Amino acid sequence: MQTRHIATGILALSMMGSASIALADTWRFGLEETEGSVQYEYAQAFKQLIEKKSDGDITVQILPYGVWGSSYSTLYDAIQNGSIPLSFGSGFLGGTVPESQLMSLNYVMPNDQLEATEILNSDAFMKSDAWQQSFRTRGLVPLAALPEGYQVWTANKAIHTPADMQGLQIRVMDNSLLRATYQAYGASPITIAYGELYSALQQGQAEGNIQPVWAHENMGFYEVQDYMIFAEQSQFIANLIANEDWYDGLSDDQRQLLDTTIHEMVKKGDEIQKQLNQDRLKTIEEKSDIKIIHLDQAQRDEFRKLAKPIRDDFVNLVGERGGKALDILLEQEKARGDKSDGDSQSS
Q1: Which residues does UniProt call coiled coil (predicted)?
Q2: Superfamily of 152-234+289-335 according to CATH
Q3: pLDDT per residue over 285-307, tens digit each?
Q4: Theoretical Cys-Cys bridge with 88: which of 107, 238, 250, 296, CB 3.0 to 4.6 Å?
Q5: Bridge partners, residue 153, by sequence
């Protein structure tokens, strides 16, 4: 359970210090997840590269979930004020950067996970004015995207079609686009704190759950659910972000070191999540009798049709800049010859 790490890990941000962050040789790296997660394994590999390339002049201090606190808003505030200059931000980041909810849309990216990773980290998208300004207007800089594997559904009944999801109390993150998406599927989405989710599933307060495979295993959610459903509707995507003043204040050499290392980590990140999810799925299958369901193309298309109108909801919610960012993703997908639903969204 991740909650076991929290009580022993909390440190006051005031003790971290924030002086001279632009010149600091210790880079504090905040994670939304604990040890054993995709973010943690990525951060460890990133740390090794930065410290090796800088000949030890730069130390990366990894701050997993629980070390900086347990409220994601605390982490995002710390990034904005510079006390933690580097961090990941995912579904909950929508409250700080509404446009980041783009990553929550279903059936937008290609099915091939590496191809999706490359599109998200392409200069055409990541360095686009639409995406950069979405973050910079909030004092942040988007540096990379880390897909952590497909979001997999669990439930106590089989789900093959939207009809099977009618009325299902499925837990989603506190994200308006996710709620709208699962309402469109016919479910009754609810929000429950991550640390309370296991008991909620066990007691029937929640009937379903959405997580990458590694998280289902890490938190033991599979122990209290009967079915695991792969619909390939979206990957769980974490945004690697930096404090704007810190990033812009880096020396040319430091910024080049950071940027080249992040570029190297694109493929490495994909390898990390695939291996971790593969290993964790094997563990789940060995330790339980949970039934695995893979939706076929026709079944996925039923959900895809219901998810497509949520793109309009996204643009109406966040505005023109978000619509442009969505268009760039769809255009990059189409340019690569993907045959999925890649039509332009905004006018």
Answers
A1: none
A2: Bacterial extracellular solute-binding protein, family 7 (3.40.190.170)
A3: 999 999 999 999 999 999 999 99
A4: 238
A5: 210, 229
